[in-house]
Amino acid sequence: MNSLIPLIIILLIVGYLCGCLASGYLVGKSQGIDIRDYGSGNAGTTNVLRVLGKSKALITFLGDALKGFIPVLLMKYVIGPRLGLPENTTQLLSLLLGFAVVMGHDYPFYLHFKGGKGIATTAAIMTAFDWRFGLISFIIFAVIVSITRYVSLGSCLLSAALVIEFAIFYPGRWDLIGMAALYAFFAIYRHRANIRRLLNGTESKLGQKVDVNK
Would the pTM of this model clear 0.85, i.e. be above it? Predict the structure, then answer.
């Protein structure tokens, strides 16, 4: 394990820097605003949708998804095998790399550690790791949001479900299950204000707009 420490450090640094590519913030700046000053104050896809509309939200989503999808895909299917790493080790390192991307997304250093909530990035990471997780996440999110119109609720539930999915598809892999729990914890923690609003009945629903001229 000690021989892997340099690689782990490199992966964590690279992952974090990839995560710092704040798509929502950059899209907002292209429109002359700091997206974090509007709506929920978040730099993620949902707030961009609420403030700037569908096309800008799509750009944000693709940026947030690809910065997680590509590094994990490369680690799992290219870098790990080329380094001759065992499959179990490659799987764990892929999730560690992905988690660093999420941390960069949530806490970008150049934005005073005020970023997004990491749901699109997490979903993309899980899709790159195992397409079944991506499919299940999409189904959970789509069903919950279509019924309730609460994006935050769908986001929290798809995140929590990751732990169950890993337990089912990778039984006995407590390292991977633990990583899934870590992803879920931070996703739900980042939604703590949304959870309070859900409980109070004041959470915004999908489709509600924010006037940027106010």
Answer: yes
